[in-house]
Amino acid sequence: MAQNGSQGKVYLIGAGPGDPGLMTLKGRDLIAQADCLVYDALVAPAMLGWLKPGCEKIYVGKRAGNHAMPQEQMNELLVSCAGRYACTVRLKGGDPYVFGRGGEEALALSAAGVPFEVVPGVSSAIAGPASAGIPVTHRDCCTQFTVFTGHEGAHKAESTLDIPGIAAAKGTKVMLMGMSRLRETLTALMAAGQGGEVPAAAIQWAATGRQRSVCATVATLADAVESAALGAPAVVVIGEVVSLAPQLDWCSRLPLCGQRIVVTRTREQASDLSRQLEALGADVLELPTIRIADPTDKRDFAEAVVDSPHYDWLVFSSPNGVRRFFQAFFAVYEDIREIGGARIAAVGPGTAAELKKYGLMVDVMPRKAVAEELIAEFDRKGDEFGGVANVTMLWVHGEQARRVIYDELMKRQAIADECLAYSTVPETEDATGARERLLQEGADVITFTSSSTVRHFMALNLPLPEGCRIASIGPVTTATLAEYGLKPDVEAAEHTIPSLVEAVASLKK
Q1: 392 and 411 together in one domain
Q2: Does 182 lie in the same domain as 89?
Q3: What is the largest CA-CA distance in the chain?
């Protein structure tokens, strides 16, 4: 909050064309610091996940014919927010000053004496064509380009675009926000001298996993757009550079291009899986069904961590257990060497990778990341370390974990104790509107990375979209799916995120 009646600062930030990865580093840092976020419809939902807890979110989405808030009211809102919050972020699609009316907002802030700063964004005028394999300039085709808006107020009887000037312009022409009047604009351009045979393209949802495009000519583009059912938001490109798209369209060649894939992991863990899927061209819908919370008995957990250096073995069931354990460990101890001489066991490679971040290598890890296989690995390697009988072992896990490890170690006469490091609870927030988008738009694949993600997804009572396929990370998750009468279309060969991504990529459209 702004203190003692002082003015807070407003940041006008460009969110880029759609891909969160194209947000500037400065922009992302400021979003993470924001006390209040005022955002548009074209802002990538994933960016809302960067906000700190308690940040006020104000949606002022703008789409053609559907403005959540008039511009004058928007200006007043930003001035008002500056009086209530120390840091207000106004997040706008593309660049604030490229047909984004950011200049009007900046003038209103200036007139009110509100401190502000502009953080430019990557404009869809260049990112949109590039994502479809169209460079806006190329020395063999053109050395200049013109950007214009095709958006006209509904109240206008006639266009105020400089149609003759645009038609006469040399080089590439890029039209933003012009899909509702595409046919009329192209017809007017040709009447003013624009060659109808010149290559032209339209790119919808550019620089996102939902991207679709069509290439035609100025004379035939409107028909091609209608045939492909392309709509707003879209970028239209006119010029010889469009002819380069068949050679340079790298996006459509990605193996998961056009596939909408649901990620149900916790919000903190989703990014790794999402990044790998997005790198293959997927439109990722992050719908966290669970979150990791503190254990029910935090005192017992703390005492177990304090006593951990006295055990012969530390057994970790999950990356979450590793993270939670060492957060508590370093709150008590200053040096990893204070862990003592304990051997380390991990259920799978993901858990082992998390341990490696703390400089710890595992002594026992099964080939398959399931509890039964870990016990079998202990049996196979028992001679190497003298077995587990009468050996002190601390099993670090979540409260909802199956008790296979504990029960089997006790059968083998180990002196086993439990360290309940966390609890898996339902994710109650849907800050990005993922559930509504799943209901409205459907999905091609839904991924499950644990039994908990299955159970909590089913508890949401969201119907599986028609034709949606299921990808499971491993046999335990598959068994849980079976409890609900579901059978995965593919199961990861190994219980790892890269293996799950490979499995998803193997599914054919």
Answers
A1: yes
A2: no
A3: 91
Same domain, 83 and 59: yes
- For 99, 134, 202, the CA distances from 168, given in Å and listed in that order, are 22, 21, 21
Same domain, 434 and 285: yes
CATH of the domain at 130: 3.30.950.10
177 is catalytic: yes
Q: What is the pLDDT along the chain (509 residues), one digit of tens a residue?
A: 565 556 899 999 999 998 988 999 999 999 999 999 999 888 888 888 889 989 999 998 755 455 567 889 999 999 999 999 999 999 999 999 999 899 999 999 999 999 999 999 999 999 999 999 999 999 998 889 999 998 765 455 566 789 999 999 999 999 999 999 999 999 999 999 999 999 999 999 999 888 999 999 999 999 999 999 999 999 999 999 999 999 999 998 999 998 999 999 877 767 789 889 999 999 999 888 888 899 999 999 999 999 999 999 999 999 999 999 999 999 999 999 999 999 999 998 889 999 999 999 999 999 888 899 999 999 998 888 888 999 999 999 999 889 999 999 999 999 999 999 999 888 887 877 888 889 988 999 999 998 989 999 999 989 999 999 999 999 989 999 999 999 999 999 988 889 999 999 999 76
Structural domain range at position 41:
9-121
Looking at the structure, tell me whether residues 111 and 197 fall in a common domain: no
Rounded CA gap, 475 and 307, in Å?
Answer: 34
Question: Could you confirm whether 40 is annotated as catalytic?
Answer: yes
Among 348, 359, 269, residue whose Cα is nearest residue 315: 348
The answer to whether residues 30 and 17 belong to one domain is yes
Count of domains observed in the chain: 4
Indicate whether 482 and 418 sit together in one domain: no
Single-letter code of the amino acid located at 199: P
Point out the catalytic residue in the list 19, 23, 35, 40.
40
Catalytic member of 47, 177, 179, 365: 177
Catalytic residue among 23, 35, 47, 62: 62
Half-sphere exposure of residue 12, counting CA atoms within 13 Å on the CB side?
26
